[in-house]
Amino acid sequence: MPRFIVLVTTGVFTVVARFMSLKEAVASCIKDGDTVSMEGFTHLIPHAAGHEVIRQGIRDLTLIRMTPDMIYDQLIGAGCARKLVFSWGGNPGVGSLHRLRDAVQEGWPHKLEIEEHSHAAMANAYDAGAAGLPCAVFKGYRGAELPRVNKNIKFIECPFTGERLAAVPAIRPDVAVVHAQKANKKGDVLFEGIVGVQKEAVLAAKKSIITVEEIVDNFDDVPYNAVMLPNWAVTAIVEVPGGAHPSYAQGYYKRDNAFYKAWDKIANDRDSFSAWIDEHVMKGGPEDFAAKREANKG
After folding, report:
1. 120 in helix, strand or coil?
2. Which of 71, 87, 128, 177 is the most buried (most CB within 10 A)?
3. Tens digit of pLDDT for each residue in 124-156?
């Protein structure tokens, strides 16, 4: 059963964070047709949570991610996605995302709509969403080709200077999913090391699932490069050791470079991809990640 953290405000009890299993968190937060952001920049990518979405057979998702890589390749190939909003896509250091390419070019397992942006546009759009703004305004896209194919890139005139500025819709997902190193028993979350837009994604979203390596009593010796999210900004917290594998979690395990290379061959063929999903996702579960973490420590 999920455990609740309760904040008392003027005599009214308000649920601000819940500790639950990964299965419960995904089932309660993500529904067919939702817009879902799974963020993490090389580091702390929420693979375990993505696998649970596949296991639960959730469909018609609009997936948002600045750098969709292996986990989105798996979600797309498993038929979970209807649309992808992104600013770069590939298998880092290896090559293409074959399931993404197959969906766009050949419509397998079904056609995928894509909306491509620059990194700057995505980062600004997340900021705008976190601030509750309808759009992001920034300097960008001057001379670029993307506005010709992306109707969500507009240009406006600054009312103060007359300068031509780019504008894109704010990113405000139904659900943000991220991985972090720790949560304390109050429901606060601690990220250490390289971060991308995890904080902004959570603050912009209606609901959030945060998987963590461990739940601790308190945060001792917080480093200078840490990012913290307060419990009132979080919907669900799940302890999933190794939940970012094969990406890395600073202080816990290294990036599994061998698997990123192996994925290129696995994903290049529909049958080998389907067999891998069946064996390692549909018949697996988050408990498998503890063993992977131990194998990749160092």
Report:
1. helix
2. 177
3. 999 999 999 999 999 999 999 999 999 999 999
